[in-house]
Amino acid sequence: MESLVIHAASRQSAEGFCSALSRLHARLVEGEEGRYRVEIPLGGGDRQVLQALSTIQAYVSARADGPALLALGDQRYTLHPTDTA
């Protein structure tokens, strides 16, 4: 099963993403050298991908602490906060 992966800047950041994405079954993974990522399993097709991206966008915009670094398969993406005002 493919996963959408968020590369977090810190454990605190990863925990925030996990909390915001809990209904999507996100899980925190500690990698090498104390790096953290959040993995969201994707088994529900395009609709689930769009739901995950929408939730991440809302969280990144609300926290206003810089972009999210994402990976889907071999592709890398940067999701910047949007102006919510």
What does this structure look like?
There is one protein chain. The protein has one domain (2-79): Alpha-Beta Plaits (2-Layer Sandwich), CATH 3.30.70. The protein has 2 helices and 5 strands; from the N terminus they run βαββαββ. With 85 residues, it is an alpha+beta fold. It has a 5-stranded antiparallel sheet with strand order 2-3-1-4-5.
Please state the structural category: alpha+beta
Q: Which fold does the CATH topology refer to? A: Alpha-Beta Plaits
CA-based gyration radius: 12 Å
Kindly state the number of beta strands.
5
Sketch the major β-sheet. 5 strands, antiparallel
Number of domains: 1
CATH architecture: 2-Layer Sandwich
* Element-level helix/strand string: EHEEHEE
Highest CATH level, the class: Alpha Beta
Overview features:
85 residues, alpha+beta, 2 helices, 5 strands, 33% strand
Question: Can you give me a brief rundown of this structure?
Answer:
The chain is of the alpha+beta class and 85 residues long. It has helices at 11-20, 45-63, and strands at residues 2-8, 27-30, 36-42, 68-72, 75-79.
Give the helix/strand layout:
Elements: E1 2-8, H1 11-20, E2 27-30, E3 36-42, H2 45-63, E4 68-72, E5 75-79
Antiparallel strand pairs: 1-3, 1-4, 2-3, 4-5
